[in-house]
Amino acid sequence: MDRQGLVDAPPNSLEAVAAGVDVCRRCDLWRDATQGVPGEGALHAPLMLVGEQPGDKEDLAGRPFVGPAGGVLDRGLEAAGVPRGETFVTNAVKHFKHEPRGKRRIHKTPDTGEVQACRWWLDAERRIVRPRVIVALGATAALAVFGKATPINRNRGQAFQLPDQAQGVVTFHPSYLLRVPDAAAKAQAFEGFVEDLKFAWSLAA
Length: 205
Ligand code: URA
Prior knowledge:
With about 200 residues, the protein is an alpha/beta fold.
């Protein structure tokens, strides 16, 4: 691998992905991020969960879904009866895109070019883990997993055959569930999230 993380041969282990992500220069997001955040979980997990990008906490910890969105994801998995230890959790984009606001770092949605550039790493994780089912958490993840814009609401509750033999499922991003303002709507959205995770797990089992 060269110093820009641009490799000719695709990585063939999760260790190589982790090392490559951290030195990746395929887009400019590395400049303001603390580190690259690779996926983590069981090597041959039947279920892969793909989020958008690391948040503030994940950027500092170097691990996916360890902040508030990770808390929602954990609660959803528990309610759906899915052991997180039997999943592989990752993101469409491996560096935290943000802008400063005072002392805070405010999340910015990655653009299509950044998602496209980072598919090198997501595709490597998919080839190595070979999950039976991939759950795209939100629109950015769906763009990365399916390679085209895939609206969440219209496509929930269905399984789509992916070229790598996995089946793809979409659901809400956990951060969206945190932002729903009305308590009843929030509870309903969480219930839907749990149903989607149960559906995905039933396909993976
Ligand atoms: N949101 C994501 O999409 N991924 C994380 O790892 C954390 C928050």
